[in-house]
Amino acid sequence: MSVKRHYDREFVRTFFTSPTAVDGEDDSAKMLRSAGQLRGLQAPDVWVPDNEDATAPNMREEGVENIIEVVSEQGAEFPGEIHPRVVWHRESPTTRYQGFQQMLEITDPENGAVEHIDGFVIPEVGDIDDWKKADEFFTIIEHEHGLEEGSLSMSVIVESGEAELAMGDLREEMGKPSNNLERMFLLVDGEVDYTKDMRAMTPTGELPPWPELRHNTSRGASAAGLIAVDGPYDDIRDVEGYRERMKDNRAKGMTGIWSLTPGQVVEANTAPLPPKTGSWLLDVGGQEVELDAQDGKQVYDGDDLSLETDGEGGYVLQAGGDRLELDEDELTEELLDRTAYIPSMTDIVDSMEEFEAAKEAGKGAIAMTQAATLVIDGVEVEVSKDRMWDEATYQAAQTPITLFQDVYEHRPDQHEELAEMYGTDIVERATAVGN
Predict the structure, then answer these.
(1) pLDDT at position 313, please?
(2) Composition of the chain by helix, strand, coil, percent to 5
(3) 12-269: CATH architecture
(4) What NCBIfam families would the database entry show (predicted)?
(5) What rounded mean pLDDT belongs to the chain?
(6) 281 alpha-carbon distance from chain centroid
(7) Beta strands 305-309 and 119-122, pairing class
(8) What is the pLDDT of residues 334-383, one digit of tens each?
(9) Cβ contacts of residue 175 below 8 Å, gap of 6+?
(10) With 0-12 CB in 10 A as exposed, 13-18 as middle and 19+ as buried, what is 64?
């Protein structure tokens, strides 16, 4: 049985932080105002006015005032959720009290911002008792201001070994009468402080990739019915690296990622969505190369693989230092082993609709065929593979469609861009399939 979720969203793609007050500017809130005006694919699913690391300590009091002012003015029109980040530390009662005071001021109904505030992000948490301390402050704030209990969600940043271990306790603790941890929303990795807490070192001084932390956070979120978000990718010019990080994360079940710029927001908003067109991949020297679609054929145009006929009905395939002499069936089998297909949105919807129709007709499983004409050095080879679809296959294929449906439901500001990306017909079919 799946874990019950306590909020509307099932997916968060983007976690975008903005400094709450910039020193030396005529308008210290200018970055907040700019972020609050983002729309469409440039607007994040979760906007985090950051009154902790992104804002200098001497500017945080003004940062609270700026959050109140900007969210009061722009919050109603902002298309994503708004979750300010306040100060906190597992080892500092003083810092925790400061965070409580920041939340108390921001949520004061007389200040006009709380109706647009969805929750708060708590950094530097420790063991599960520390999470409960934060939760108790949320409850006090709700009682103090006459808000519905549990109306403010709590997200935490996992920045220590203590917090990582606490994720294993969360499922058992949520729902106990002594806390309101059902208010939990996001588990966000903070690899920079985590690296410091773990006393980790690399020869170059760069952050370790921490695949274990990302896996543990994704697992903790799945077990507790929450959403996992990866930490910041601070090389903002390395677009390909950002994409690879997100691809690796999605294989772990972690869809969301921290975004530091509107450009990263666009990348993170679009990367998890099914592609508009399908593509064939060919394994060449251990690397997957995307084939070029030309006139309905899939063309390899590299130098690391060659294919020619031997004049006697056979073929010679050269890959790296290997020279393979193959007949037609052996060649087809070899290329099938080397190819993979990335389905498009249309492919996924077509397959799901076909399986649904077969299930209606009383069939428990059907074969789906993928076929292509590969072209290597002008030599054409027909390849096809059958994949059995049963209920488990259907449900696995449904995840990207469920993501799309979640986005379509909660982000109407992106409807026009999604229709331009896929076409109106496939958008309509994608929102209906599986329901």
Answers:
(1) 83
(2) 45, 20, 35
(3) Alpha-Beta Barrel (3.20)
(4) malate_syn_AceB_Halo
(5) 94
(6) 24
(7) unpaired
(8) 999 999 999 999 999 999 999 999 999 998 888 888 899 999 999 999 99
(9) 181, 182
(10) buried
Give the separation between CA 360 and CA 14, rounded to whole angstroms. Answer: 38
Query: Same CATH topology for 12-269 and 397-430?
Result: no
- Polymer length of the chain: 435
- According to DSSP, the β-strands at 46-50 and 81-82 are parallel
Q: What dihedral angle (degrees, nearest 10) is formed by the CA atoms of 228, 398, 81, 135?
A: -40
Q: Find the mean pLDDT for residues 59-64.
A: 97
Contacts of 409 (CB under 8 A, 6+ apart): none
Quote the tokens at residue 286. 């251990």
- Residue 1: what pLDDT? 30
| Burial tier of 15 (Cβ tally within 10 Å: 0-12, 13-18, 19+) | buried
Report the alpha-carbon distance of residue 435 to residue 431 in Å, rounded: 8
Vertex 434 angle, CA 1 and 185, to 5°: 50
- CATH number for region 397-430: 1.20.58.1560
pLDDT in tens, 173-221: 998 999 999 999 999 999 999 999 999 999 998 899 999 999 999 999 9
Name, in order, each residue with C-beta under 8 angstroms of 247's C-beta and a sequence gap of 6 or more: 271
Show me where the domains of the chain are located. 12-269, 277-392, 397-430
* Per-residue pLDDT tens digits for 151-162: 999 999 999 999
